[in-house]
Every structure is written in structure tokens, then in C-alpha cells.
Design a protein that fits this description.
This protein is mainly α. 75% of the residues lie in helices and 0% in strands. The longest helix is centred in the middle third of the chain and has 31 residues. The N and C termini lie far apart (61 Å).
Length: 291
């Protein structure tokens, strides 16, 4: 009976996918699902943009950001109908990463709302983009994040949608899980250690330099990038022809080291003497004991 309902659900899913594919001009199933995911993320981000206009800033987007990665993985898995264990592992990976990150950032956003009214970065955007912040924020703050989420999600969406026939785990699968595990540990440890550090009033004005924070100034960003390299390796294990989805982890790495992430944080805080001294002592990205 269970097998019958699973088969029925798969047929219904394929019918919906075929209809959507025809609507989008005959796209392949994988690209059809990617388009559906893009429309979904665009819609959610647009709703958050509207809410942010009434809240006075758009730091709520930070709270959703991680969940965006998990949700497109869920959508892909529902439409895929795959029985590939590699695809199931990719789903687990993107769920662990996205839900953990989403929970942490949404919890932090709630805290900001109670104290400063929002994340300082987003409060800064309000000032920088005046006049006309309400419409400029849509194109310059919010929707670029739709593009980022979708491009970084290449290996998760296509790794699930275009998974090859089920086969035993080999070197690539175990390598992907190992790399992902290292990244997940770093981002989890970094965020939990920083949260505990900030909760102690005695640490106000100080910088965390213990735990994983003794190895790099940005262990959270390091962990995030390693997570996506692990997902990419698993996507290759799922289908070796998905090598081109390397766009995802490459973009994540560049974004968190050269554009936002470490670069933005160091520029934002580098004028503080204490942080400038920290920059001399600690590696900016790759973990090591001393610079």
C-alpha cells in the first residue's frame, strides 16, 4: 500500500513538472525546478521587502537567509522523485546547514529588533541609500540576495534533480561528507561560541580569541564555504557531469572572502584599534594558530 501511494505521488509530481516545463518553454526537469525555486525565493524576498519598509529596515532578510537554502533543496527533492542515496545525503546536508544558519540568524535578528531595531549593516543601508531607499532597497539590498541564494544552490538543486542511478558510496561520497562535516562543525562552533561570549557582559568591547576563534578571525565564514564545497563534492558523486555547478561554492567563497563576509567585516571594524591589532595576530580566513 505504501509503495502504491509513493508511486501515485511520483506520477502526480511528474505531471505537475511536465506542465510547468511546458509553461516555461520546454525546459528540462532540472531547470524547470530551478526556475520554480527562483520564483519562490523571489516571492519570499519581495514579501520580506514589503515588511521591511514598514519596519524601517530590512534586517529581517538576514533571519530568512539560511532557510532559503534549505527550502530550495526541499522543493527539488519533492519534484525529483529520486531514490538515489546521494541525493538524500545532499538533502540532509542542505537541511542541516540551512536550518541551523536560519535559526541562528533569525534568533539574532529578534535580538537586534529588541535593542537597536535591526542589524547595523541594514540600518546603514537605510542611510546610504537615501533618498528613495524604499525602492532602491528592492534592487540593491534585497533581490541581489535572491540571485546569490540561487547561484550558490546550484550543486544542491541539480545534485538532487539530476542524480544518477543508485550506487554504493565511494571515495567522492565519503570525501564530500567529511568536508561538509568539517565545515558544519566550524560554523556551528563559531556561532555558538560567539553567542556565549556576547552573553557575558564582562566581554563588552572585547574580541573572542578562544575556541575556533583562536584559529581565524572569521571561523563562521570559513565553515560556510567549506560546507558548500562538501555539498558540491557530493553533487559530483551524484552525477559526475555536474562539474559545472562549481559556480556555487566558488561564488560563496569569493563572496565571503572578497566582497562581503571577511572583507566587509574587516573594513567595517578595521578602524577600531583593538580590531586592527587582532587583524595582525589572527588569520583572516584559513584557520592557523598565528598569522
Amino acid at each position: 500500500m505504501t509503495a502504491y501511494f509513493l508511486l501515485l505521488r511520483k506520477k502526480e509530481t511528474l505531471k505537475v513538472l511536465e506542465t510547468a516545463s511546458n509553461f516555461f518553454g520546454g525546459l528540462s526537469p532540472a531547470w524547470t525546478v530551478f526556475t520554480i525555486c527562483a520564483i519562490y525565493i523571489f516571492t519570499v524576498v519581495t514579501v520580506i521587502w514589503v515588511i521591511g519598509i514598514f519596519q524601517g529596515n530590512h534586517s529581517m532578510m538576514d533571519g530568512y537567509y539560511g532557510f532559503g537554502y534549505a527550502s530550495v533543496g526541499w522543493i527539488a527533492y519533492v519534484f525529483s522523485g529520486t531514490v538515489s542515496p546521494q541525493a538524500a545525503v545532499i538533502l540532509l546536508m542542505v537541511s542541516l546547514h540551512g536550518v541551523r544558519l536560519g535559526y541562528y540568524l533569525s534568533k539574532r535578528w529578534v535580538g537586534y529588533r529588541k535593542t537597536t531595531g535591526g542589524d547595523k549593516r541594514y540600518l546603514g543601508f537605510v542611510t546610504q541609500l537615501k533618498p528613495g531607499y524604499w525602492w532602491k532597497s528592492f534592487f540593491m539590498v534585497m533581490q541581489p540576495q535572491t540571485i546569490v541564494i540561487m547561484l550558490i544552490s546550484f550543486p544542491s538543486i541539480f545534485g538532487i534533480m539530476e542524480a544518477g542511478p543508485a550506487h554504493p558510496f565511494g571515495v567522492l561520497e565519503y570525501a564530500g561528507m567529511l568536508v561538509f562535516g568539517i565545515g558544519l562543525y566550524y560554523e556551528w562552533a563559531a556561532d555558538s561560541q560567539l553567542e556565549a561570549f556576547k552573553a557575558d557582559a564582562h566581554n563588552k568591547g572585547r574580541y573572542l580569541e578562544t575556541g575556533v576563534w583562536a584559529l581565524t578571525r572569521h571561523p563562521n565564514y570559513f565553515g560556510n564555504t567549506v560546507v558548500w564545497w562538501g555539498i558540491y563534492i557530493m553533487a559530483l558523486a551524484s552525477n559526475i557531469h555536474l562539474w559545472w555547478t562549481v559556480v556555487g561554492p566558488l561564488m560563496d567563497t569569493v563572496m565571503l572572502t572578497k566582497i562581503l563576509g571577511t572583507a566587509f567585516q574587516d573594513k567595517f571594524m578595521g578602524s577600531r584599534p583593538e580590531y586592527a591589532a587582532l587583524m595582525q595576530r589572527r588569520s583572516g580566513f584559513l584557520p592557523r594558530l598565528r598569522k
